């Protein structure tokens, strides 16, 4: 019999985990940001809140968002007019819709990632799903496994209510799984729909107005594995996952929060969020690079920052004295899709690889950062492989 130490060593991969493929998907319904305030106040029958409508118009104008995709379209809302009133008991109906829509959207994104990866879905060994739109067990992970035809032994994990840091957390767990289980191929899927937190405006909840104005729907998927297969199907690592950390900003539990209530998901965002991130991000980066034992010039790196809001990107750019264009991938994703919570950061990686393929970003090393309730900062140091320059 081998020793436990030998068994453990044999289980570990040789190389670092890497993102091997990426896929994204969005609901068909598109909402132009310039039309949103009129639409929102009309469908929620709230035209009498003229001051709030003007505020939302100003938020939309300054949001850096051109359009968003939304699962909850006018037709679906017409079938559920009570969704506009957060005091009515709509949680059951919302969960019913979300428990079909979230895995379906995730499956669209995952199918694209699997097609790019080039191996059969049945070769996936682990599945991690992140969403804030849960409320049922078995959860979206099991439904997604079934939609994709994953093997019955696939090892599933659901991350619930991790909010905008869900994508970062899921990728960190995928890295650990891939590096500690030789041959593992981890499918990460993040799927978010705002239907859970859609309701009309309230004078005393300005964060509702903000949330309605910046959040969008989308799903992203990534396949993560170590030691790429080079015989038969050739796997092409995109981003190698060098190192990862998680930091919580002390005493900020109340600044980003979500809670299920009878009328849906109550989403709270304090006005302090951009400033809190601004005063903690650089320390977090310095600590991460210290732990790695290397120093870095911020402009020599590529950046995949979660675009939580336009002003957050402005703060990061200013704080780190980043050159123009360093946050172009985050800004483009924000512009095209809004803040899709946990799904967003993989969209940013997808956009980054397109920019790298066009030669618009040439840095070899970079950082991915996502922020969520906690306030939690998920940071990962990435290495771009030559495959990204060759496309
Ligand atoms: C909303 C903005 C685009 C507005 O742009 P500017 O700040 O440049 O413009 P501005 O100061 O003139 O603000 C325009 C109007 O928005 C209002 N406003 C700004 N921030 C607000 C907030 N947090 N809650 C309510 N209202 C807010 C202002 O009071 C102002 O109203 P008036 O015009 O009436 O004076 C920006 O502030 C932004 O990007 N904020 C970041 C949003 C955020 O916190 N994102 C994190 C999401 S959480 C996340 O990503 C993680 C997770 O969900 O888990």
From TrEMBL:
Residues 240-384 form the Chalcone/stilbene synthase C-terminal domain. This is Chalcone synthase. Keywords: Acyltransferase, Transferase. GO terms for biological process: pollen wall assembly; polyketide biosynthetic process. The active site is at residue 164. One of its GO terms (molecular function) is acyltransferase activity, transferring groups other than amino-acyl groups. It comes from Lolium multiflorum. Pfam families: Chal_sti_synt_C, Chal_sti_synt_N. Residues 5-228 form the Chalcone/stilbene synthase N-terminal domain. Belongs to the thiolase-like superfamily. Chalcone/stilbene synthases family.
């Amino acid at each position: 019999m081998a020793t436990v130490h030998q068994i453990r060593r044999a289980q570990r991969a040789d190389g670092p985990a890497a993102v091997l493929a990426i896929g994204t998907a969005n609901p068909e319904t598109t909402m132009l940001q310039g039309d949103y305030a009129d639409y929102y106040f009309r469908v929620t029958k709230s035209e009498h809140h003229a001051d709030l409508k003007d505020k939302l118009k100003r938020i939309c104008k300054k949001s850096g968002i051109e359009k968003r995709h939304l699962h909850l379209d006018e037709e679906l809302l017409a079938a559920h007019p009570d969704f506009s009133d957060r005091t009515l008991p709509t949680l059951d109906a919302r969960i019913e819709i979300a428990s079909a829509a979230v895995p379906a959207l995730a499956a669209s994104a995952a199918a694209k990632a699997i097609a790019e990866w080039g191996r059969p879905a049945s070769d996936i060994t682990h599945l991690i799903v992140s969403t804030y739109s849960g409320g049922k067990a078995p959860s979206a992970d099991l439904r997604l496994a079934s939609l994709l035809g994953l093997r019955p032994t696939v090892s599933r994990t659901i991350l619930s209510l991790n909010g905008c840091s869900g994508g970062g957390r899921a990728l960190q767990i995928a890295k650990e799984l891939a590096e500690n289980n030789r041959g593992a191929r981890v499918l990460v899927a993040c799927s978010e729909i705002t239907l859970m937190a859609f309701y009309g405006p309230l004078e005393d909840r300005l964060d509702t107005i903000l949330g309605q104005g910046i959040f969008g729907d989308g799903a992203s998927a990534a396949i993560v594995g170590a030691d790429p297969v080079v015989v038969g199907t050739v796997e092409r690592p995109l981003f190698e996952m060098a190192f990862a950390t998680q930091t919580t900003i002390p005493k900020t539990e109340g600044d980003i929060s979500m809670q299920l209530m009878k009328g849906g998901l109550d989403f709270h965002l304090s006005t302090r969020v951009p400033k809190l991130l601004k005063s903690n991000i650089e320390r977090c980066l310095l600590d991460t690079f210290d732990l790695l034992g290397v120093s870095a010039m911020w402009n020599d790196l590529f950046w995949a920052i979660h675009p939580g809001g336009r002003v957050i990107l402005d703060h990061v750019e200013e704080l780190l004295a980043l050159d123009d264009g360093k946050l172009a991938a985050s800004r483009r994703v924000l512009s095209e899709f809004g803040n899709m919570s946990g799904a967003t950061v993989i969209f940013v990686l997808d956009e980054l690889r397109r920019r790298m393929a066009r030669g618009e970003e040439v840095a070899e090393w970079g950082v991915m950062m996502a922020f969520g309730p906690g306030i939690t900062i998920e940071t990962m140091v990435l290495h771009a492989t030559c495959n990204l320059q060759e496309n």
